[in-house]
Amino acid sequence: MKKLLVIFFALAFVGEAFAQGKYAGTQIYDRVGHGEDSIAALNALSLYRDEYKLQKWEEALAEWKVVFEKAPVAQSRIYTDGAVILQQLIAKYAGDEAKKKEYFDLLMKVYDQRLEYLDDLNSFATPTTTTTRGNILTRKASDYFAYAPETPDKNETSYAMFKQGISDMGENEVHGYVLYNFIICSYKRYMADKENNREAFINDYLETNETCERLLEQAKQYSFTDSIATAEDSIEAAKLEAKAAKIVAQYQPTQLKCEELFNASGAANCADLDGMYAKKVEENVSDTLYLKQVLAVYANFDCDSSAVYNKVVAIVYPKKASAGNKPANKLLYYQEAFQTEESASKKAKIAVSLAAMYYKAGQLGESRKWCNTALSVDRTCGSAYLLLASIVVRHASGDHLERSKYYCLAIDKCNRAKAVDPSCASKAASQIASYTQGLYPKSEAFFAGLKAGTPVTVMGETTTLRFRSN
């Protein structure tokens, strides 16, 4: 009975013959053509959706193929649904190479056909279903990388698709899972041929990491930094926190994976960097922009004691360079970068890098100064607050109660980091857990007549007493 009703419905609404072109303002019945094919397509559309909702993937596939073949511009969702159906079937038949190959080939055809009809599909799409060539290419690249047969050229083919898709899509729009798969692909490509792919992998690492940082900055717009005084404030803060967490969940795992793979790769071995850049520096000795990019790579990977690095420093900063003085050379690069950078967020991150170098060298006063400089440029720089927390703890002295006051101030810094920069939430929570162990015990505070929340001054700043419960 249901099939008969669908057929009757189709006959009543079949429009003009299907043709290439724009479909703005049309209904689905205008886009499936006329005659038996349109009736079959509309009938199959209803049936496959029912099976799809029940996760009956093989049954859904049979009906879906009718729509895919007979009505390619009926709806945008036939392409997203088709990808899900085929991904599920590839996973189901993981041990059957013939079946996997059949479903994989059809999956690739889904993306190719969607690209073919992209303009027509977008002409009637809503803002949420409109898509781009780059988005489709990056999705195709991810599925190719995940499901293609293991052939010698698999990584190269996937890599080329990723690069093209990301380029077409624009770095600010690329999804976190795409970047995640891309950096794994780039890593595998490098490990298969280190000599020829080292520079590409280094650049992919730097660009992916920078993209994640830039997109994580977007989470800050959802920070609720005011004091929560009412129930309405609590509700609003929770809503904003959820939005920020969604962004962090998309890009922070990618950034962590990026770091993990790069550290495992050994790609930035200082001697290998020298081998890679020595000749190129000679060839680009008059290209200041390129030489500064080389300095950025060396400084980023703590390779500032090499002859190549110092040669570039002498070329770019002939009056300021301090030959043979490693700390001065590296600090020189970052200080110059701080002065010339225009972006507030990047300028703050450079200041934190300087603070971290001074912290590592035990110069806590200079480290604290640069953290505060970072915050004067960008009050939402969570990493500056976290490093300040570490500096405060390094200053802790006196008896248990006095040391506990430093931990209270450090916890304040961590809480502030979480409030202004959601991407710092995980690290801030870890530091807070550690500092909490250094707090004065609640049981001893009770007998000493101390009360939680009492204001105290530490390092010229005011905090409030907290106590450890156990």
Structure in a nutshell:
The chain contains 21 helices and four strands. The chain has 470 residues and is mainly α. The longest helix has 35 residues, at 231-265.
Q: What does this protein structure show overall?
A:
It is a single chain. About 70% of the residues lie in helices and about 5% in strands. By secondary structure, the chain is mainly alpha-helical. Among the domains are: about 1-130, no CATH class; about 150-265, no CATH class; about 270-340, no CATH class. Helix 4 runs antiparallel to helix 5 (about 95-115) and helix 16 (about 345-360) packs antiparallel against helix 17 (about 365-375). The longest helix is centred in the middle third of the chain and has 35 residues, at about 230-265. About 40% of the residues are buried.
On the 0 to 100 scale, the average pLDDT is 88
In this structure, how is the largest beta sheet organized?
2 strands, parallel
Read across the widest sheet, the strand sequence of neighbours is: 1-4
Computed over alpha carbons, the radius of gyration is 29 Å
Helix content: 55-70%
**Low-confidence runs:** 1-20, 323-327
Determine the strand fraction and express it as a percent band.
under 5%
Overall morphology: globular
The helix tally amounts to 21
Total DSSP E strands: 4
Structural class: mainly alpha
Cα distance, first to last residue?
69 Å
**H/E series:** HHHHHHHHHHHHHHHHHHHHEHEEE
